[in-house]
Amino acid sequence: MKFIPTALVTFLFITAAVQAQTPAPAVKPAAPAVVMPPQPPDVAAQKFGPDGKVNAGFAMSHERFVGIAKEGKAQLVFLGDSITAGWGSKKEIWDKAFGAYAPANFGIGGDRTQHVLWRIQNGELDGIKPKAVVIMIGTNNSGQDPAEGIAKGVTAIVETVRAKQPQAKILLLAVFPRGDKPTGKLGAANEKLKQVNAIIAKLDDSKNIIFLDIGPKFPQPDGALTKEIMPDFLHLSAAGYQIWADAISPESLSGKRM
Q: Does pLDDT of 6 surpass 60?
């Protein structure tokens, strides 16, 4: 029989006793979620994450757009959310349709009216003198804001563009239709956007601001959007962007009637 040295037995006994008396480390409670105050759609605001900090992607894109504006080359500016940002993956259509106008795409995914308003109040329209600005924004507000509030947000954007770029013609697009999943049917959210469009259509002055509704150009058999044009019933496919490009003529970009 093999004996364990007395010193080792004593050490093991003391170690076990200490471990038994040592309380388990306290579990650090999770940091409480930061509750951000609601953002009115017509009051300029940055986009924040769940941690209460400014969304990093939003901040990076904004700084990049400010840099493009400072270069002073853009003659045609697109303002909007992910639907506008989506032009970035449709370069061939974009270049063919708008390349001659020295275009700049200032679209950020997830943006609402208040975010675009903040962006253009904070540098994205400084340093350039575009001939035309295309605006399409508001669908991301539809989940929580009333139609009147969304329309106020769009109006504030248009007024800010006019103040900062009085020489530019504004092509104000109706908010594109959106369908419910999984059918693509045009439901309550789309009805709200139709109300928004009816209000902002009144901003058209036939001179400096032209309102254009190309929603009916997107196929809607049986009152539903198609996956061929809007795969998720919100964002456009290449075919959808081609419809958009075809709908914006040189005449509309110059402020003349189509």
A: no
Q: Is 196 within a domain?
A: yes
Domains held by the chain: number: 1
pLDDT over threshold 60, residue 136: yes
Contacts of 3 (CB under 8 A, 6+ apart): none
CA 84 – CA 106 distance, rounded (Å) = 8
| Rounded Cα gap, residues 153 and 141, in angstroms | 9
Task: Assess contact for 187 and 199: CB atoms under 8 A.
Answer: no
- What CATH number did the domain enclosing 170 receive? 3.40.50.1110
Residue 56 CA: distances (Å) to CA of 81, 115, 126, 150: 16, 14, 22, 25
pLDDT in tens, 7-16: 444 444 444 4
Per the CB < 8 A criterion, the answer to whether 134 and 168 are in contact is no
User: What CA–CA distance (Å, rounded) separates 114 from 142?
Assistant: 13
Tell me the catalytic residues. Answer: 82, 232, 235
What Å distances lie between residue 83 and 71, 111, 178, 241, CA to CA? 25, 10, 11, 9
Residue 257 clears pLDDT 80, i.e. is over it: no
**Structural domain contains residue 186:** yes
Phi/psi of residue 61, nearest 5 degrees: -65, -40
Q: Establish if 1 belongs to a structural domain.
A: no
CA-wise closest residue to 134 among 253, 5, 236: 253
DSSP state letters, 109-134:
TT--HHHHHHHHHTTTTSS---SEEE
Q: Quick check: is 258 in a domain?
A: no
Quick check: 3 pLDDT over 90? Answer: no
